[in-house]
């Protein structure tokens, strides 16, 4: 996966190759009010992009949230609160710097988009319309860049690309992440056809759990369980 990065203040750019083998839960679940899937109508079942990120962290999140209706109380988590503050601050400052750095002709902010065909919905921080006639999602993260793009981040962008492509009828072949705790560094990520296929398959797996009430295997990484909100009931 090719990538490039830009530091807003230092105005530098470089390229590299990222791996997506590690997984980190996304602290910025800012997709607005959660709406549960319509389990009474299979064809109308809709999930959120944030549901996919939870599933990638541990598939049992989906079971506890939607099959047992046990909330996470995520609003009490520090990183979630901080991430939302970042989004509020961003509304007031540096609104146009991305356009200058990424050959962006125009952008739309805080865009809610959904796809009945793919059973997914979510909010894109910014939809960028680029000079080459393509579009790209941009996502802000209250996080440091750690020389790789985590799997949750990657598929958040892939799903956003899927939604933008369908709703705007425009090609989307790359996406951007802005790491606010790394001097607002912006990383570019390629979106491939295989990435989109993988994302569609993940959505199918999640809907299968919800509709059939399947109890998934727990994560293979026990370190994820240490701070999990479901650790006291998960067996």
TrEMBL record:
Key word Nuclease present: yes
Region spans: Disordered: 1-41
Enzyme class: hydrolase
Enzyme Commission number, as recorded: 3.1.12.1
Coiled-coil annotated spans: none
Residue ranges, compositional bias (Acidic residues): 23-32
Family of the protein in this entry: Belongs to the CRISPR-associated exonuclease Cas4 family.
Protein's name in the database: CRISPR-associated exonuclease Cas4
